[in-house]
Every structure is written in structure tokens, then in C-alpha cells.
User: What shape does this take?
Amino acid sequence: IFRKGKVNPLPPALMPKLCETAKEVVEKLEKKGFVLGINLIETFPTLVKKICKAGSFSMNAACQTENQKSALICAQLAFLHSQFKTRWLGYKDGFLFLPEMSFWKKDWKEKFYQAWKSRPYLKYRRLITNLWK
Assistant: This one.
């Protein structure tokens, strides 16, 4: 469904340099008291823009670039996470945090559910989520 929606995330194995940088950042943040998955989360703003209902995430007029809009979405998602309104999807190489289903467009809820239900078991057996809780 990601490819069809033109929001295909790259698996960490295909981004070795970015992964190394991310590990260094996580290490430094953990030394300052951040905990991965609790107050340090992985987001994907391109997907969030696609799956969420219009108006779910406000786009401040001060955001002049796509990077600024993405940063704002990440900040808003972090706020939702602090309010326990996020869900996760992933495995041991990382968990992607998304807004809870109440923020999602109806068609994306259905697409995601169907994709999850029909996923090839052997290929994705370790992939876990709490999206529907």
C-alpha cells in the first residue's frame, strides 16, 4: 500500500549511513535521559500527511519549506505521543509511530487493515503493531 500511495518508506538496511548517524544521535540523546520508544520516537511525516484527515495536523503559515512542514508534523506527532494518542508499527530495527486511527482518513484505515490482514506471514511474521488497540 505504501508504493501505491507514493509514500514508500525505505527499510533501515537500505540506508546504512543514515542509520549510523541515527544511532549516534540516539546514543547521545539516551545519555541525556531520553528513552527510545518512550520520549524518543521515529516518525514518517510524508506518510502522516497522506493518511491523516484534513485539519488533523495544522500547517502553520510560517512554514515556507517542505522541511519546515515535516518538522511541524513531527512536533505535532510528538505532542500526540505525550497525550498517548499514537500507535506503533515495527520490529527490532525500529518502531514507526503514527497517530491513532481516529486521525486517519477512512480509506487509509481500510487499506492499512486489508494490507495487514493479507500480509505474507513468513515474510512479515515478526512485524508487530498496536494500531487497532
Notes: Residues 66-82 form the longest helix (17 residues). The helical segments are 16-31, 45-51, 66-82, 106-117, 121-124. Residues 35-129 form one domain. The mean pLDDT is 85.
